[in-house]
């Protein structure tokens, strides 16, 4: 059965799914939805994703949205390597780490929020960038405190990469997009370096995506 991923080079939520697909060695076709140009609102894409957001994964004609729901689906469909631990407390901890970025920090920086800051509060480009950098840093600071409480060994849950590492690395990739200094968060930086030593993470990083390269060649 074929897998198609509606995504975008800069999309942090699509990054998470790209990493999971790659760790599970599942081949997929990526279809670009340029969320910076508003293509998520096109009528054709609204049929695919009623939330007007990426990612959407299509598997055998069935559509799935929300990156964490997609990754949990992939974990059930292709259990190896497992991206969620099996022990209930570890599983809950992995999910709680994943949600720091995916539910709390990253949503404050997405295009619809940036656009509304401009429209409703007359925030200019510099103010919007300051807003985003603040929430990216807040997410990283929360991860730094969590990793101080329970150090990565070598990944957040132990020997195996989990959904937690995918989301922490995603938050770091956001910082990279904003040109922020990772070294301010040493425990997060060390964990991210371990993640980005793996091709599944490196290849999914926005800087490795053809859209990023095209945007920077213009
Ligand atoms: N919680 C969702 C987030 C989806 C989301 O907001 N995606 C962003 C890109 S990372 C998007 O498509 N934004 C479109 C917009 O803000 O207009 C997930 O994890 O999949």
Automatic annotation (TrEMBL):
GO cellular component: cytoplasm
Protein name (database record): Maleylacetoacetate isomerase
SUPFAM superfamilies: GST C-terminal domain-like (SSF47616), Thioredoxin-like (SSF52833)
InterPro entries, per the entry: Glutathione-S-Trfase_C-like, Glutathione-S-Trfase_C_sf, Glutathione_S-Trfase, Glutathione_S-Trfase_N, GST_Zeta, Thioredoxin-like_sf
Organism: Sphingomonas panacis
Limits of the GST C-terminal domain: 87-218
Pfam families: GST_C_2, GST_N
Lineage, broadest ranks: Bacteria, Pseudomonadati, Pseudomonadota, Alphaproteobacteria, Sphingomonadales
Gene Ontology biological process: glutathione metabolic process; L-phenylalanine catabolic process
Domain GST N-terminal: 1-82
NCBIfam families tied to this protein: maiA
GO molecular-function terms, A-Z: glutathione transferase activity; maleylacetoacetate isomerase activity
Family: Belongs to the GST superfamily. Zeta family.
